[in-house]
Each structure stands twice: as C-alpha cells, then as structure tokens.
Specification:
The chain has a domain of 200 residues: Spore Coat Polysaccharide Biosynthesis Protein SpsA, Chain A, CATH 3.90.550. The chain is built from seven helices and 13 strands. The strands form two sheets. Strands 1, 2, 3, 4, 6, 7, 8, 9, 10, 11 and 12 form an eleven-stranded mixed beta sheet that branches. Strands 5-13 form a two-stranded antiparallel ribbon.
Length: 304
Amino acid sequence: MKDCTLVIMAAGMGSRFGGGIKQLAPVGPNNEIIMDYSIYDAVRAGFNKVVFIIRKDIEEAFAEMIGNRIAKHVNVSYVFQETSDVPDEFKSIERAKPWGTGHAILCCKDAINEPFAIINADDYYGQEAYKVLYDYLTSMGDKKDKLDLSMAAFILKNTLSDNGSVTRGICNVDNDKNIVEINETYNIRREDDGKVMAGDGDTLKEVSEDSYVSMNMWGCPPEFLDVLDTEFVKFLKKYGENPKAEFLLPIIIDKLIKNGLGDCALLESHDKWFGVTYAEDKATVCEAIAKLIADGVYPEKLWD
C-alpha cells in the first residue's frame, strides 16, 4: 500500500468552535459527526494519514472532539492556519482572517511529502470519491512538464438541497476527461416542475441535472505545494493590501490549467453528497446516514 494523505480543511470552524456549530452536530447513532464518516471512508480506500488544518487556539478542543479518537486508527497530524503564516517580506500586512483555501493547503508544506487529497470538514462525500482519488493518486506517473492534478466530481442532481438553493462549480471537460474550466454557478435549485434552474431575473437559466460539479475535493501531487508557494507570493504582491482578497484553490487550479502548467483529471463519483448548508439539512443527513447503516455501508459503531 502506498502512502497517501487526507487533508481536512477545518480552520474556518475556529471562530465558531464550541458555539453550537451545525456542521459539528452529531449525525450518527453514537454521536459520530460528518468528519468521522469521511475519515472512515478514506482509511477504507487506502489513505494512511490525516492532516487537520485548524487554528492553534482550538487544538485541544478539536483533538478531544475527534482527533484523539481517530488517532487510534490512522496517523494524525495538525497544521495551524494563521494570518501570520506568510513570507517575511509580507509580515507587515495586517489581516483579520486567514487568506483562504489555497493558503490553508500551503500551511501543510512541512507536513506532507506524499500525494494527498483535500476535503472540506463539513461535507459528506461517500465511498466512491475516496476510492477513485486514492487509486489515481497512487498510480500517477512522472509528469515532468505539468502538474498531475485531479478532482472527484459529483453529479449535480446528487448535490442539491431540499431546503434552498446552492452554489456549485459546473465543470467543462475535454475528450480525455480533463477539466477545461469550472464555472461558478449561483442559486441552483430544483423547481416544482422538476427542472433544475440557476440564477435570477436576466441570468435565469436551466442547467442539466447530470452536469459534473466540483465539491472542493481535490487530488494533488506533493509538488503542488511548491507551486502554491510561488503563486502565493505573486498573490500577495498584487492583492496583499486588500483585506477581502482570498487565495482560493479553484482559482489557482483554473489558472494552472489555462496557463498550461497543469492537467486536472475529472474522476467521477456517483454517490450522493450531503452537507449542512441549512439548519434543516441536519435531519436529512441523519436520515441518510441511518439508511446507509441499514444497508450495510457502515457499521452501527464506526470506531470500535
């Protein structure tokens, strides 16, 4: 089995930690949270290390909530995303919050030397996505001229919420199933007539429910961290004084694709995505997990 790491972006939870965070509410029969199922699926697929990106001030509480339990089953590391984690020449920039998802992953540069996958802490992705990512990441050849990136793509109809509209990155691919472009699409919902619509007013349009969409689940070679380092310096030189500017993974990867510096393979997952976008979504997630347990996908108790 080849080494492969799962990186979980959880730093954004820091400001809300302990305050009844809906994404950390129990969804399983033994108080499991969504992250429990994500890590269980990843370990089952072959991932042998988990890196949590969190804020330093919540390390103890986070370890108590999930890290200590998981550490009995897989190698666990913590990385801290702080606003001060920038090159020395930019230390004078005042910033109220970290710089976004690209910055979060860059904070892992001293913790990862192997291929890795990236997920959001509060999303349930299902088994298939971890399997296709692990298989791809552990079978990559040596691409000398381009970064060999990948993304687990979901079918739009499997990512809609019954409780309101969602934003999704709809993917365009070439004949080799490499991503050409990701179009951020807002206010997507299923109407009473069954059609899936996006936008409002003059921007209103029908979209195919079978479209591939990004749910921020990426696969990366370790060399991606060096590229992030270079791109972050460029970003800070251009946008460092803008307090709202964010260094975001989809924008970075889109830039690499369009500049011919990387390919991003689209890996299909047909599982249903769950997330707690709305408070009402929690009941839906609990019901879905209960059904998966009844169907034998998960044991009643994940971590014996």
